[in-house]
Design brief:
The protein has about 425 residues and is mainly α. About 75% of the residues lie in helices and about 5% in strands. It is built from twelve helices and six strands. The strands form three sheets. Strands 1-2 form a two-stranded antiparallel sheet. The model is unreliable at about 1-5 and about 410-423 (pLDDT under 50).
Length: about 425
């Protein structure tokens, strides 16, 4: 749509002809724009829709503006026609004709009924400006509503279809409302999507976010905040359902692994209890930790998990298996730590025996195996280490005495480990 220039003194014929040509071009541009607005898909949808909220209010104003716009255009058309008729009276227009044309083309000579008052008077230039304003505001509304309707309902329908597929999968694995949080989430998403679609269809402008400084018609984008949030929520539920489906596929293998881990933990604890008895019998003056029995609660939970599998209660089996797998690994670790703690005195005795024999082999290589002092101290240390119960503290002192004697016999002074101890 075009814009006219302001007035001046009485126009001559050339000025009149140029003004009429410009006004004719503007008339064609305005008519084309109005017909395009009339045929716009968004406008037709707005006319036929049952609107609510902000859209209903703004569309009522826009309809009045469009009606007024056509009235202005008709007045503009009539004024242009009158001006052309006056110019067509004579090839060389008289001064009276030119004065009349000047008044028609430049003064507020166009009276239009309606608007904020009973009638309004405009110059042709002001009338074009007013039509431009009404057209721009009406087109913005139509484009915004059409953009929301084009973007959101179809996406909501696709998400609703995915929701139905997810509900079917959830039902197949026993995930139902009131029985599983994911089932409750599906019900909530269903309610929100249904309400969202109703709101988008009846009040699209409530889902329009204007863009600051945009000159494009509509100047904004559809607000997909609610849709995006529910799409993410549905994706979370779908992943949870997939996890439950995975449980259904490998539940038996996981139960077998669980039984194996718990069985290894039990065997390790039994070995620790046996080792504790051996330590108490063979090692004297040593604190040996008590070995507890296997926790019965894990076996009870394992039996419950097996029942869930037989009854196809996959949604209950899934979290139980995850918890059991973590606890079973912890139980096996605890059993191994118990065995290590219980057998620590035996490990110390074995280290002392190894150290004693290593020094005896060393002195034998130097031909000192029959040295009376070394033989005496070796026999004393060996009796302590190979007798039951063995006092580790006394035995360690005996081994150290043998090491010192061996070092002195070899001419090497104190054993290196004793030097390190003192340092």
């Amino acid at each position: 749509m075009g814009v006219t220039d302001p007035a001046g003194p009485v126009m001559d014929r050339d000025e009149v002809d140029r003004a009429l040509a410009r006004l004719g071009q503007e008339h064609e541009a305005i008519e084309t724009s109005l017909l395009a607005l009339q045929d716009h898909a968004g406008r037709r949808l707005l006319e036929g829709a049952r609107l609510t909220g902000v859209t209903a209010e703004r569309w009522a104003d826009a309809e009045a503006s469009i009606t007024l716009l056509w009235a202005y255009f008709d007045a503009y058309t009539a004024a242009l026609r009158s001006a052309r008729e006056i110019r067509a009276r004579r090839r060389w227009s008289s001064r009276e004709d030119l004065a009349e044309l000047t008044a028609l083309l430049r003064d507020e000579a166009v009276t239009v009924p309606g608007g904020s008052r009973l009638s309004e008077s405009f110059s042709l230039a002001a009338l074009v400006d007013r039509m431009n304003e009404l057209y721009a505001s009406s087109l913005d509304l139509v484009v915004a509503a059409d953009a929301v309707w084009s973007a959101l309902p179809a996406r909501i329908d696709l998400l609703a279809a995915e929701l139905q597929r997810t509900r079917g999968l959830a039902h197949s694995v026993g995930v139902r409302p009131g029985e599983h949080p994911a089932g409750d989430d599906l019900e909530r998403i269903t309610r929100i999507l249904t309400k969202l679609r109703e709101d988008v269809v009846s009040d699209p402008l409530a889902f329009w976010v204007p863009t600051e400084g945009s000159s494009a018609p509509g100047g904004g984008r559809p607000d997909t905040t609610v849709y995006d949030r529910e799409a993410r929520a549905l994706e979370d539920v779908r992943r949870e359902i997939d996890a439950v489906l995975t449980v259904r596929q490998d539940a038996e293998a996981r139960l077998i692994r669980l039984r194996d881990v718990l069985s290894r933990a039990d065997r390790t604890l039994a070995e620790a209890r046996t080792a504790r008895g051996e330590v108490l019998a063979k090692i004297a003056a040593t604190e040996v930790p008590v070995v507890s029995g296997p926790p019965t609660v894990l076996q009870e939970q394992l039996a419950t998990a097996a029942d869930y599998r037989r009854q196809a209660q996959w949604h209950r089996l899934s979290p139980l298996l995850e918890s059991l797998e973590e606890k079973a690994e912890e139980e096996l670790l605890r059993a191994r730590e118990s065995l290590t703690a219980v057998t620590a005195p035996l490990a110390v005795r074995a280290e002392l025996r190894g150290r004693l024999d290593a020094y005896r082999a060393k002195v034998a290589r130097h031909g000192l195996a029959e040295d009376p002092l070394l033989v005496e101290r070796y026999d004393a240390a060996r009796r302590m280490l190979w007798s039951a119960p063995c006092d580790l503290r006394v035995a360690e002192q005996a081994v150290l005495r043998y090491q010192r004697a061996a070092a002195e016999a070899l001419g090497a002074g104190e054993p290196e480990d004793r030097k390190e101890d003192r340092s």
